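TL;DR need structure tokens for one chain.
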Amino acid sequence: MEIKKVGVIGAGLMGSGIAQVCAQAGFQVTLRDLEERFLQSGFDAIRKSLQRFAKAGKIKPEEVDGIINRIKGTMDLQDAMKDVDLIIEAVPEEMELKKKVFADIDGLCPPHTILASNTSALMITDIASATKRPEKVIGMHWFNPPPMMKLIEVVRGAITSDETTDTVKKFSVNLGKEPVVVNDGPGFFITRYTILQQVDAIKFLESGVANIPDMDKMVKLGFGWPMGVFEVIDFVGLDTMLHILEYLHREIGDPRYAPPLTLKKLVKSGYLGRKPGSKGGFYEYFMAGEKAKKGDG
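>> reply
TL;DR here they are.
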């Protein structure tokens, strides 16, 4: 099966980035979200990203408009499903929401269409149970920001077919990415592995081993990481991390995945990371604490 047209559900940080990558690779893309303002925000993010690429010499400035013109925005789900060969879902990490989306798109898109989820932790087999085509449901776990990160973790559900897996692997390579196939399970490999590092960092903070900027500085200088642990948490979202930990702890039963108290407190206090309406993330929490110590507020 050949992928020619792609539908992306969700125009947020991940969805807009995925749409950009697909359009840059020459695919026709339909980007769908619930409201016009979300679509506009997604297109604004795509244009800014492409302009940065042009400034860095990775694409020609005159290519920007052509890439954007390959992306059609819509609020009509039925319109978004029309004639698509692959759908990539990028909505928030909530199982019931994802299952509803998959049930809806399953009834609207052509029989040959592959349904992929960008979930970073939720089991593909569970999501696929909401459809009548579980053999065509697969995980495509992208990494943030999608235009920059090479890896796509391709997740096979219990009934995902070889044909579906091979098609998504080939498509990922055509995007300039490097797909690695893993079997289904809560958190797959990457999330289950990396989130424990993030949990430990929060526990180190709670026990007073080191502060947030110093821990991030050490992992960047010591391990060569492009971002610190707390920078990543703030970037992904504290509420997202909390949802994932609660899911992993519930599904696996391993106490290592129990959400740290500090994470719970920050989320309840409105510190959600880099997203609209948030007070900030761990860094803003740290700066507020430093100001309080100095008597500056």
